[in-house]
Specification:
By secondary structure, this protein is mainly α. The protein contains ten helices and no strands. Helix 1 runs parallel beside helix 3, helix 3 runs antiparallel to helix 9 and helix 4 runs antiparallel to helix 5. It is globular. The two termini are about 25 Å apart.
């Protein structure tokens, strides 16, 4: 059971209502997830979190689908049930095939193509043990065509994923029925 109540869409106003509408519009979902409904209890946190997720998760040259794949793998590595389910659903929405979604939670070493595998594995390492990143980890990304800007995007997505898992786990957010439906 969640530790905090949620702010329903019908109760949202001002900046929170804008965050809710922006989320639905950008992500293409008919609902606002419980994650943002919980953050809406502190409008400044909801707005700040949305801005980071919107900008890091959607802008730049690393494809959105790969960024969501990083989010799933980080969520699995950090044992965050809410974020894993939510971002698996968003991966599906972005066209990530069922086998790839399964591998994100079962066997990262089997991900193909190699470029995607290296990006996702780097993201997990950045989110779970950033001090262990080596020159070889960076070299593998460069060998797969990533430049410095791309690498910073991957690190940013990994960091945001860790942040979100902390919020979801600390508040015990319940997985949205809408995400469960999307995963059927």
């Amino acid at each position: 059971m969640a530790h905090l109540p949620i702010v329903e869409e019908s109760q949202a106003s001002g900046d929170v209502a804008r965050v809710f509408e922006d989320f639905k519009s950008l992500k293409g979902t008919p609902f606002v997830p419980n994650f943002f409904k919980t953050l809406a209890l502190a409008p400044n946190v909801a707005q700040g979190t949305w801005r980071v997720y919107r900008d890091v998760g959607h802008l730049g040259s690393v494809p959105r689908a790969i960024k969501e794949m990083i989010f799933v793998a980080v969520s699995r590595a950090r044992n965050c049930e809410y974020c894993e389910a939510a971002h698996l659903a968003l991966c599906k929405l972005y066209g990530v095939d069922p086998k790839m979604r399964e591998l994100l939670t079962q066997d990262l070493d089997a991900l193909e193509p190699a470029r995607t595998r290296e990006i996702v594995k780097f993201g997990v390492k950045a989110a779970t043990d950033p001090r262990s990143l080596t020159d070889q980890d960076y070299a593998r990304l460069r060998q797969n065509g990533l430049n410095e800007s791309d690498i910073v995007e991957v690190i940013g997505m990994a960091a945001f994923s860790a942040y979100a898992t902390i919020i979801a786990d600390a508040t015990k957010i319940e997985v949205d029925p809408g995400f469960k439906e999307m995963l059927k």
